[in-house]
Amino acid sequence: GAPARTFRRAAYTEAMQKNLSDPTEEIRSMSIRILCSLKDPFTIDRLLEGLQKEDLALLPPVEAIHLLSFQPDTRSQMVVHKLMMDSKDKKVKLEAIRLLKQYQAAEPLFASYLQNKEEDLEVRRMAAASLHHRNNKAFATQIKSVIFDKLEDIGLRTFCLNALAHHSLDGLDNNYTSSLKSIANDHQQPKLKEKARKILEQMGIQW
Fold first, then answer.
1. Which residues of the chain have pLDDT under 70?
2. What confidence tens digit (pLDDT) does each residue in 51-110 have?
3. 52 secondary structure, DSSP code
4. Cα–Cα distance between 162 and 37 in angstroms, integer?
5. Dihedral (CA of 13, 15, 18, 23) sign
6. For residue 84, what are the contacts with CB-CB under 8 A and spacing of at least 6?
7. Which pLDDT does position 45 carry in this prediction?
8. Torsion angle of the four alpha carbons 74, 80, 83, 88, in this order, in degrees rounded to the nearest 10
9. So what's the pLDDT on residue 133?
10. How far apart are the first and last CA of the chain?
C-alpha cells in the first residue's frame, strides 16, 4: 500500500544520498541525477553549496548547473546568476544562460554578452536567443548594435535579424526602419537582405 511505497522510497533516497560522498565521480554523478529527478531538497542544496564554494562541489559547475536547470527555482537562479557574472568559462556561461532564460534579473547580463565583441560567438548567440525567448519589449533595441554593425560577425547579424522577424515590430522608429532599408538593398549580403526585406514586408514598408 501507500505507507510501504513511502517507506521504500525514503530508504532508496537515503541510500542514494550516502553515495554523494563516494570517491568515484561516476557513482556520485549517477546518484545525483537520480536524486535530482526525485527533486530531493538535500541534493539540490548540496549542488548549490558547491557552486558557491568550490571545495564543497560534488560535481564540476557545468554538470551541476545542467542538473539544476531541469527544475530551476529562485534560489538556483540567484546562485547561478552570481556564478555567471564571475565566470570566464564558456561552458559555464552557456549552461547558466539556459537555466536563467526565465530569470528577469539576468537580462542586463545577456544584453552585455550579446554586445561584447570579445565574448564567444556561441555565448552571444545564446544570449540573444534568451532575450528573444523572454519576449522582452526592449529586444529590438538590444540587438540593434549587432544588426547594423557592418564589422560584426555575419552569422550573428543574420541570427538577430531572423529573431527580430519573429518578434513584435511595434515601436521600431524611422531610424530603425531606414537602417533596415539599407540592408534590404545591400546586394553583397543576400542572407541579410532577405531577412531585412521580410521584416519590412511585415511592417507594410517598401524598401
1. 1, 4, 7, 135-136
2. 999 999 989 999 999 999 988 899 999 999 999 999 999 999 999 999 999 899 999 999
3. H
4. 35
5. negative
6. 92, 93, 96, 97, 100, 106, 109
7. 95
8. -150
9. 85
10. 71
What are the Cα distances from residue 48, in Å, to 34, 58, 59, 67, 114? Answer: 17, 10, 11, 11, 27
Predicted TM-score (pTM) of the model is 0.85
The 10 Å Cβ neighbour count of residue 197 is 19
CA distances from 157 to 5, 114, 115, 198 (A): 55, 11, 11, 15
* Separation between Cα atoms, residue 191 and residue 110, nearest integer Å: 25
Among 187, 132, 130, 120, smallest CA distance to 161 is for 132
Written as one string, the DSSP assignment of 62-123 is: HHHHHHHTTS--HHHHHHHHHHHHH---HHHHHHHHHHTTT-GGGHHHHHHHHH-TTS-HHH
Q: What is the DSSP letter of 54?
A: G
Residue 111 backbone dihedrals phi, psi, to 5 degrees: -65, -40
* Radius of gyration over every alpha carbon of the chain, rounded to an integer in angstroms: 22
Residue 151: DSSP 8-state: T
Neighbours of 151 (CB within 10 A): 5
Q: What pLDDT shows up at residue 7? A: 67
How many residues does the structure list for the chain?
207
